[in-house]
Amino acid sequence: MRTLIKDLKNGEQVEISGFIEKFRDQKSIQFIVLRDISGAIQITVDKNSNPQLLPITEQFTINSFVTIKGKVVENAFVKLGGKEILPTEIVIESIAETLPIDNESNIDQKLDYRWIDLRTPKNALMMKVQTLFVQSARKFLCDANFVEMHSPKIISQPSESGSDLFTLDYFGEKAYLTQSPQFYKQMAMSSGLDRIFEIGPVFRAEKSFTNRHTTEFTGLDIEMSWVKDVEEVMAFEEELLTYSMKAIKETYGEEIQKLFGVEIVVPKLPFPRLKMKDAIEILQDLDYDIEFGEDFATEHEKALGEYLTKKNGHEFYFITDYPADIRAFYHMRNGNSNIAKGYDLYFKGMEITTGAVREHRYEILTKQALAKGNSQEKIQFYLDFFKYGCPPHGGFGLGLDRITMLLLNIPSIKESMYIFRGPTRIKP
Ligand code: 4AD
Ligand code: MG
């Protein structure tokens, strides 16, 4: 039976499996470093006492997958964990050809061979960190009585706005890929499900070539009933994030520090909050040409991020009180004002979430939808969700790949997701 490398104990007779990370062939001795998902170990082959292994190790190539049986022994000279394996049997399960990428390869070459690129300890850790983030968030939500939802990704009408939509042929009819589970989250409120979440794919047909945009990402979306003030949504999200980051720091903090050189800072509650008009004033003071009513451009977000992160000594901040004109039609307005009850959450200067209190009153929602140019005919299926009773509610959508990227200071989202999709990349 296979033992994971992290579980190896001195004196035991074991079988381990993984890929060859390093192989050094010396006069009378051979050193193998074998890696599996849990760690790496040195295997030392004494050529004189193990001649039967040599025809096998002769065929070794880096990254070949092998199974090795042998004894675990303590050896203070071994830098890698102070122990090694003295093998009695080696089986090559799969030989690797010379690798097409190495550390010097550029990001596109690496993405072409993503499965090999993922073999690095850094990338394996990234995948584990993302797993724990999702696991913690799911636990937090389930403990708060949320129900998990899996809404359809093939839809007949745009789910967010008419732009950025992938179209597909659905048995001769036009269909789309969802840009957000937004409408179905709200439908669940009308279904009386009270609090729901979904962790699933989100599609955006956006020709963006930035370090934070992808055409398919994973969204963590929540919606909860009986929320009337946007402050309640923000307070919930900051608790969720703090909970998940605490788990990540506890489990992987040291490893992240070692491999990524990043300190996970468990954020202090409450996160700083700032109104859009005050953010605009800061930007104007920094000599940017922007007026209240306009949306931030990338340069504004960057400047604001640097300024606020430094000033607050906090990696997160909320921006609230956006003009309704630059927000989605379904955001509730604050009284009769033209301010939306919504927010964006920034982490290390980048947007990771948009959230809001939604307009649940049929008449007002219909008016807002039409005022934003939606056609009544097309949007009616959604408006119908509010026709037969719907509690007040709010929620948010968080980009999982962005969170992973920012948590570990990975320079591009291309490398913070399992397999990246962009305007010019749909492989592997
Ligand atoms: O800000 P967005 O577009 O908001 C919505 O989808 C709303 N329905 C959410 C809500 O509940 N009101 O998307 C939510 C988050 C963004 O903040 C960002 O983190 C991520 O999804 N995101 C992207 N991530 C990668 N690539 C893209 N092209 C993204 N677009 C949005
Ligand atoms: Mg947004």
Which secondary structure elements does this structure contain, and how are they paired or packed?
Layout: E1 13-25, E2 29-36, E3 39-46, H1 54-57, E4 65-74, E5 83-94, H2 107-112, H3 114-117, H4 121-143, E6 147-148, E7 154-155, E8 167-170, E9 173-177, H5 182-190, E10 195-203, E11 216-225, H6 230-260, E12 273-275, H7 276-285, H8 298-312, E13 316-320, E14 342-347, E15 350-357, H9 362-371, H10 376-383, E16 393-399, H11 400-407
Parallel strand pairs: 3-5, 6-10, 12-13
Antiparallel strand pairs: 1-2, 1-4, 2-3, 4-5, 7-9, 8-9, 10-11, 11-16, 13-14, 14-15, 15-16
Helix pairs in contact: 4-6
Bound molecules: 4-amino-1,4-dioxobutan-2-aminium adenosine-5'-monophosphate (4AD) and magnesium ion.
